[in-house]
Amino acid sequence: MYVAITQPLTFTEFLAWDDGSGREFELWDGIPVPLSEPNANHEDLIQRLCAYLENHCQANDLPYVSRQSKQVRLKTASGEKEKSRKADIVIFAKEEWQRMKTSSSSAAAYIPPPGIIEVVSNNWKDDYLTKLAEYEDLGVLEYIIVDYAAFGGIRFIGSPKQPTITIYQLENGEYLPPKIFRGEERIDSLLFPHIPLTAEQIFAMSR
């Protein structure tokens, strides 16, 4: 379903736009497209993981700020209508977040953020295929896919399917082959190099 508007919106116009329904949207070719609501497990994991990462950054003086459910402006060609994704967790550079605090504009990823985390739901192909290509093209340094309920295809999480965390890290404009983590394996993150989290501890945040 597409929302009726009189003309395509820019990213900035979209952030200020409200259809009054209370629904969440992404921007696609200048047109706001409504999103389905996450289930309770999905939402709990996002909230708890985002809070954990924010505390970890503060405690370890890392130059990042973690925020949940933020719009990310995607890369578009000249003359192409603007697009966005509403990412589950966005890892902002602290400097960029401080800059936004001095502005009255909506807080969003106007420039490519260092990291993005997506928690997988039924539409798993978006996270493993479409968003992967979009975030690589955008230049996101680290893209983390948290598949707590093993929704993904077997080519991504193996057979038999099991909860999996997949981490893509950018090098020379391309994502390297992914790092895969399950069970009690400790996460190996570019942005959070000493984080004491196992895959299972992250999955447990949904319970």
UniProtKB/TrEMBL annotation:
For this protein, the record's CDD domains field holds: DUF820-like (cd06260)
Return the Pfam families for the record.
Uma2
Top-rank taxon, per record: Bacteria
Q: Could you tell me which SUPFAM superfamilies the record lists for this protein? A: Restriction endonuclease-like
Start and end residues of each Putative restriction endonuclease domain: 12-197
Protein name, per record: Putative restriction endonuclease domain-containing protein
Q: From which organism does this entry originate?
A: Nostoc piscinale CENA21
